């Protein structure tokens, strides 16, 4: 899952970004509405965590632009205004969820994950294929009943491959969903992560390479 955090309080924005990355999410951060709109035209996001009170372009305007574009990105709006009318107004603009400051990070993370599930076609609560059992909620992986310990990026890549449901998933798709915008698209990080996954998942190999196209798990 890829998330954009838009918050002008830099310490808060960076803290949210770091916390979500620990949930194995790919996270980009913008500190004003202008930068948010620029990133939204370049990258595909599952969820935007959007402060309502932003410099340059307001969070309301960012939300309206996103909704009018027809993109399926989900919006979690943040605000210091706790009045019911403010929450109603935010939802009326097109936000999918609303969270007032101050908030508990655990609640924000849970809401982001829930919105991310809504941003994609419904997936089963547990992903299974070729003897692999991946539980996104407990963040556990096993193969043929034996536990497999994975890094956050390995977990994210494996989840994307399983969500491919036997189809080919390109390296570009894996970069888009498992890494943030700072990753060099010409790096060998995808190949390295696939190599580590193959090693940890053991024999017989289950991740196939389709030359020039991508990877799949049959």
Describe the structure in your own words.
The longest helix is centred in the middle third of the chain and has 15 residues, at 105-119. It is built from eight helices and eleven strands. The mean pLDDT is 87. It has two domains: 2-119, Response regulator (Rossmann fold, 3-Layer(aba) Sandwich); 127-217, Winged helix-like DNA-binding domain superfamily/Winged helix DNA-binding domain (Arc Repressor Mutant, subunit A, Orthogonal Bundle). It is α/β, with parallel strands linked by helices and 218 residues long. It is elongated. The strands form three sheets. It has a five-stranded parallel sheet with strand order 2-1-3-4-5, sandwiched between helices.
User: Which class of secondary structure composition applies to the elements?
Assistant: alpha/beta
| Coarse morphology | elongated
| Overall structural domain count | 2
Spell out the helices and strands N to C: EHEHEHEHEHEEEEHHHEE
Short account of what is shown:
With 218 residues, this protein is an alpha/beta fold. The protein is 42% helix and 21% strand.
């Amino acid at each position: 899952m890829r998330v954009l955090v838009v918050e002008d309080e830099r310490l808060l924005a960076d803290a949210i970004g770091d916390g979500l990355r620990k949930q194995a999410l790919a996270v980009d951060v913008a500190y004003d509405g202008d930068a948010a709109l620029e990133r939204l035209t370049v990258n595909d996001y599952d969820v935007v965590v959007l402060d309502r009170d932003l410099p340059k372009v307001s969070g309301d305007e960012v939300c309206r632009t996103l909704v009018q574009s027809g993109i399926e990105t989900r919006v979690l709006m943040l605000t210091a205004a706790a009045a019911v009318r403010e929450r109603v107004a935010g939802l009326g603009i097109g936000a999918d969820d609303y969270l007032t400051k101050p908030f508990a990070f655990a609640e924000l993370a849970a809401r982001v994950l829930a919105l991310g599930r809504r941003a994609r076609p419904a997936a089963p609560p547990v992903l299974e294929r070729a003897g692999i059992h991946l539980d996104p909620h407990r963040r556990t992986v096993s193969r043929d009943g034996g536990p497999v310990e994975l890094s956050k990026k390995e977990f994210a890549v494996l989840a994307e491959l399983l969500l491919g449901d036997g189809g080919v998933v390109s390296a570009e798709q894996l970069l888009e969903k498992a890494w943030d915008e700072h990753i060099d698209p010409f790096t060998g990080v995808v190949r390295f992560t696939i190599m580590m996954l193959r090693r940890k998942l053991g024999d017989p190999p289950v991740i196939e390479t389709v030359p020039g196209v991508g990877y799949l798990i049959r």
